[in-house]
Amino acid sequence: MNDYYPFINTPLPYAYDALEPYIDQKTMYLHHDCHLQTYIDNLNAILKEHPDLQTWSLKEFLYRWPDLPPSLQIPIRNQAGGVFNHRFFFEEMAPPEESYIDLDIVKEIEKNFTDLNDFLDQLRQAALSVFGSGYAWVVVEQGKLKITTTANQNTPIDENMTPILNLDVWEHAYYLKHYNLRSPYFDDWLHVIRWDILKQRFHEAMSSKTESSS
Ligand code: MN
């Protein structure tokens, strides 16, 4: 994944219609080729004027933004967040026939929630609770799975929190199919989650925690 300026919009890892009937082709096309592309173009345009920042990785912008000049903090946080959040979201989905529940990650979920249904209920409530535009997230915090939300294109990335799943609840993610209804969009999304990626991200979060504390 290209992590440095100039950022390019890498293709989706599946066809635009691969998530049908749960997420429609037109939504995927607009979401990837127009919405994500705009964040990439805007981020490149800002960085073009600031060569000293062209060596920062995408993730650095997300957790080092307080080190940026004050006038750039919000614009870069918005644009870099828009790039990271969308790539993360698109990567974690797969055609419904490839979306198998992974028993290892379910075991982890059951350590922190009553059961898988309780976890999914809480994730749904989080997604529905976002007022306006934002994301629902599953993060690893101090070795534990947690659900959280962010507004706009903010991310929960900091020293203690590593995201492993996000759901884009901006209306552009579901409006063409579900109009104003976020709840059936959530139900559809459950059919296209790549649980193997969730497991992989969980293990990466756990091992980076061990490295940084050793
Ligand atoms: Mn989006």
Structure report:
The protein is mainly alpha-helical and 214 residues long. It is built from eight helices and three strands, in the order H-H-H-H-H-E-E-E-H-H-H. A three-stranded antiparallel sheet has the order 2-1-3. Helix 1 packs antiparallel against helix 3 (70-91). The radius of gyration is 17 Å and the shape is globular. The protein starts with 24 loop residues before the first helix and ends with a helix. The mean pLDDT is 95. Keywords: Metal-binding, Oxidoreductase. Residues 105-201 form the Manganese/iron superoxide dismutase C-terminal domain. GO terms for molecular function: metal ion binding; superoxide dismutase activity. Destroys radicals which are normally produced within the cells and which are toxic to biological systems. Belongs to the iron/manganese superoxide dismutase family.
Short structural description:
Destroys radicals which are normally produced within the cells and which are toxic to biological systems. This protein has 214 residues and is mainly alpha-helical.
Key traits:
single chain, 214 residues, mainly alpha, 8 helices, binds manganese (II) ion
